[in-house]
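Protocol step 6 of 9: fold each sequence in the batch and record its structure tokens directly after the sequence line. For illustration, a two-sequence batch is reproduced in full.

Sequence one:
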Amino acid sequence: MDAKTAPQGVNIAREFTCQAVNQAGAVVIDGTAEVIAPTEKISRPRVVLPEVELRERGRRYRQLIEMTSGLEPIRTAVVHPVDTVSLIGAIEAAREKLIVPILVGPEGKIRAAAEAAKLDLGAYEVVSTEHSEAAAAQAVAMARAGKVEALMKGALHTDELMRAVVDGERGLRTHRRISHVFAMDAPDYPRPLFITDAAINIYPTLEDKRDIVQNAIDLAHALGIVAPKVAILSAIETVTETIKSTLDAAALCKMADRGQITGGILDGPLAFDNAVSEEAAKIKGIISPVAGKADIFVVPDLEAGNMLAKQLEYLAEAETAGIVLGARVPIILTSRADKTLTRLGSCAIALLLVRHKAEVKP
């Protein structure tokens, strides 16, 4: 008698001899297993498994580097690379064919840093200057003369480099306000994430914010985002005269309606939770093409932006590549704490931006 012929309610048991062996062929488990066949058919409803997404730190930067395949690297003045960190970052970017570095700064210190890092500078041009301030001025002059297509910050303070960039007579100003964008790689966010401005403009005016938004939209276009969604952030979602950032947000959205800002989809004011979470927006009754799907986050001021970027970096395992826009050439801002991949991501962004501008230039 077996399970097929057994009367209803009678269980049929079978014993199986079981052995398990290790990689050397030795028996490590020996015994028997009793299996009882069911007397009734058991079925379970079909379960739809959730979608599985691998969250990998640095994935978006790797994608940006892949996007540069086949593009000519950009000649880049690396300003004052007198420590091993900034020098290694520049040489790694050169090896990835993202930049052609021109090392600008005190030659003795640059070569000492190269020796400490065991780097051969034979293939790279060195433009010697007396100190960091002179290096910044020289790099800016090279950009004005068209000898380089981008600048890259080395071992000097950001404000020292930017003083040379914004100089009224010898700098790199254009009709646009110069602004900074953090291109974040946040593993838990399913979209690109740009924060602006968290490094240059401390308390931007409405006109400043117009340029800050347009700079970020143009960058998104260069990175392949055709119609980026722009969230104008504040503490609340309603316009009130007691919170200036809500008034600025409303004005910026109307400026976009009137064609003063182009190429993106704007909405604001939006609190951060509504900008990143469709569920949060739904609970508050916010109907918006941007809410929960924002690509660009426009912060009220530098303090808010800097804190937001640092919180994502240290609490959400995000990476922070930085780029300065609105000047004659893009400026790659790096931090001593940046990892190599982050530095490469910043260089890839600059390369894509330069080549995109060349394509769309009339």
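Sequence two, same batch, same settings:
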Amino acid sequence: MRLQARNYQLNKGWGTPPPGDLDSPQTLVLAFGAKSFETAPAPFESLAAAFPHSIIAGCSTAGEIAGNCVNDETVSAAITRFNHTRLRRAVTAIADANGSLRAGENLAAQLNAADLTAVLILSDGTCVNGTALVQGLTSGLTGHVSIFGGLAGDGSNFASTWVLDGAVPKRNHICAVGFYGDRLRVGHGCEHGWSDFGPERRITRSQGNVLHELDGKPALDLYKTYLGELAAGLPGNALLYPLAIRRHGGDTTPVVRTILGIDEAQKSMTFAGDMPQGAIARLMRAKDDSLIESASTAIATATRDVAGNGGALVISVSCVGRRLVLGERTEEEVETILDGAPAGTQHVGFYSYGEISPAISGGASDLHNQTMTVTVITEV
């Protein structure tokens, strides 16, 4: 593997021109950028010109990760030329969350092959049910395939997001990249660092990723009661208080869910992933130190079983809610990842509206919220 990283700033361009000598069908160009680049796609056009034979993928963010920094209004790019791994890109449109399962199935049909090892998926962040998307993709793939990535962001605005289709930022789109071959090694870490608080409540009415009732009462009303004065800032302030969902109650490991939108008329809340009826829900909160410690655990887990030659590509996808909690300490989370990464690492990523990763090494992939997910990619 050969790796390079570049950063693009408004009014300054690329600090160093993109290294076109890395262009090849086995080159992956990842580009994560601010929402504003939807109408100013010059950096993506320059990448397409420099890498006409490469696979280009990326999305809008709630903050761009570049090395040990978190930036806004930039494009963070990582260029990786693989020695032994083949790549294939797939794209599908999605009108709304109801089409999520089918979108995943469409992507699987484009990518599936006997030697498929891993899939990177980047999705529009405001019109998707991430749980159903992953289910659709998983159901159409042969054997165990590692799926990782995330939902595009738009700061804390939740208005609209974009995903790259080649060099063009597009709303209502999902892009996936398949990695093929037996020389690839992929490690994952997935940790959240949040703690439950308050009473447990059962989801008594829901539809997909829309939550209508908790314990038979309007979900939005109950949530506003807990938030108090902070309720005026919904849905953005909901990032500070996600829900822990235990799909079957009891002591099962929870997944974290955060709100994408609210419906005042229906008194309902729309989440990034499924809110299964009958599951147990409980509010969560976090302290800065616990979030940073969870990032340290995530990179340690991701690197534990991965060894390769010639450096590693490290992709971090963290949640916008974590960034809001950490505030000025956000870069500590990213620095922790880089400190624990292998020598020769190029580190890129973004703050998202949802993270996609296996919860444990070798496990099934799922949608997570308020989580730091780390993927380490090497070749042997």
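Proceed to step 7 once all outputs are recorded. Observation for sequence two: The chain has a mean pLDDT of 92.
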